[in-house]
Design a protein that fits this description.
ten-stranded antiparallel sheet, alpha+beta
Length: 477
């Protein structure tokens, strides 16, 4: 029994018609030609595709019809919108919005591939004239958003059952297979991207390097740092364009992890070189800090509004507008920093440092030692210090001590995550526990920062607006 859409690869539209005709039993067909254009949407890190879904926006009479489907073609959700959404919050309130929002959060929906499709839509009717299935023969063309020309893609045939008539659809599918048609496996977006010489990448902000615990320490550390440098470079365009806060988040985390690895795995590289890299990475992380804090505060503001009465919630509107203005100004400052010679030299120097191979002879104590020994010993020291600091904290401890504990927990977590492949299985549990601790301490720190920021903002908003001086007609500067 066929319960989902079945896709077949076909050479031509004519081959599809031929197979349907030859495989027909008692069914009759009514055919209409169609033309469609639309856009597949997904996030920078392909969150929908990785969840086995596609979000397609096709032109409709009153805007855009959005369809969320599983890879097997099964329709999950459908909704009408005025235009293609940039964020989940722009989708109309509907089950589709809830499904998309649960997967992508605050990530921006990007146009990933545009398609123009011509073909035939065929209703399959039984002896009583009831439509029991729909077959579409499609000749698609695809292009990247912004490209001028569509490129032809492989033709395809889709057979979709109607509720209650799955057996009829199964007969049609069986007849098509008897005619030699082969089912199209895999992800539809992969087929379209492949036709235009592109592919979905396996972007991840995590360190996904498989190390051998017996590797030289300097070789292993460079592998980890190369992975982190790639994350920085991949996210920089999104940071510059301010597409969504996750670009800045991943950029900052990669910088912090790089700093943690360089500072915690010692005696591996020349100290002068490490200090120079550390200074540059610390500078660029500091440059991203103001915008990050504003992203966090503006992200929390809707939740704060919900906890207040309707009237009090409305009073936050001027705060929200002012924070948005501050975020725009912070973003402009950050882009200026990214445009400096200092930043270009930092990234060029980092790339050159990572491109070097191991020195055949070295006096550095840990350079040629196995990474398992060096990283394991350092992780144990950080862990022991973390326990001591945590046990010393009580209800009367100042917020600065909680902040230091958070930083130490973060360093340990980054150490474990960066070299996870050399540790025994099960270390992920400890990483998750550290992440929870870090989140709790991070919320505490963020609330402290936000309290100070909101107090400063209150004073700023209380200041009367400066009115332009009245000038007499004919006055000259």
């Amino acid at each position: 029994m066929v319960t989902n859409e079945t896709r077949f690869a076909i050479d031509t539209i004519a081959r599809g018609r031929e197979a349907i005709g030859a495989g027909a039993g008692n069914e009759r067909f009514e055919s209409t030609k169609f033309r469609e254009r639309g856009t597949y949407l997904d996030t920078f890190d392909w969150r929908l595709s990785r969840a086995g879904l596609t979000l397609f926006g096709g032109a409709a009479a009153s805007g855009v019809e959005l369809t969320l489907r599983r890879i097997d073609g099964e329709l999950e959700r459908r909704a009408l919108a005025a235009d293609l959404p940039a964020f989940a919050c722009e989708l109309p309130v509907s089950p589709l919005r809830r499904a998309v929002e649960s997967l992508i959060g605050i990530r921006r929906l990007l146009p990933r591939v545009e398609v123009a499709v011509e073909g035939e839509s065929i209703d399959v009717l039984d002896g009583r004239g009831k439509v029991v299935a729909r077959v579409r023969i499609e000749e698609p063309r695809a292009r990247l958003p912004g490209a001028t020309r569509f490129r032809p893609c492989a033709c395809r045939l889709r057979c979709s059952p109607l509720r209650g008539y799955q057996e009829a659809a199964a007969r049609i599918v069986g007849g098509l297979e008897q005619q030699g048609l082969e089912r199209a496996p895999g992800h539809e977006i992969d087929d379209l991207l492949g036709a235009i010489g592109q592919q979905r990448d396996d972007y991840s902000s995590k360190v996904e390097v498989v190390l051998d615990g017996r590797q030289r320490c300097d070789v292993a550390v460079r592998q980890v740092l190369r992975s982190l440098a790639t994350v920085i470079v991949r996210n920089e365009p999104g940071v510059r364009a301010d597409l969504d806060p996750e670009f800045l988040h991943d950029f900052r985390v990669a910088v912090r992890r790089s700093r943690a690895v360089l500072s915690q795995i010692r005696g591996v590289f020349p100290a002068v070189e490490v200090r120079r890299l550390q200074a540059g990475l610390r500078w660029i992380q500091g440059a991203t800090g103001p915008l990050r804090d504003l992203h966090v505060l503006t992200g929390k503001l809707p939740g704060y509004r919900l906890r207040l009465s309707a009237r009090a919630g409305d009073d936050l509107e001027p705060v929200s507008r002012h924070l948005e203005a501050l975020a725009r100004a912070a973003h402009r400052r950050l882009v200026r920093d990214l445009d400096t010679v200092r930043y270009r030299r930092l990234m060029t120097g980092f790339a050159g440092f990572l491109a070097r191979g191991p020195a055949p002879r070295t006096r550095l104590v840990n350079a040629a030692r196995p990474i398992r020994d060096v990283a394991g010993r350092r992780a144990w020291k950080v862990y022991s210090r973390l326990l001591r600091d945590g046990e010393a904290i009580d209800d009367r401890s100042p917020s600065a001590e909680f902040h230091q504990l958070r930083l130490r927990a973060k360093k340990l977590r980054y150490l474990l995550e960066s070299f996870v492949s050399i540790y025994p299985r099960g270390i992920e549990r400890e990483v998750k526990a550290l992440k929870k601790l870090q989140e709790v301490l991070g919320d505490f720190h963020d609330f402290s920062v936000q309290r100070q920021a909101l107090r400063a903002l209150a004073h700023e908003l209380e200041k009367p607006e400066r009115k332009p001086e009245r000038r007499e007609p004919g006055a000259v500067d």
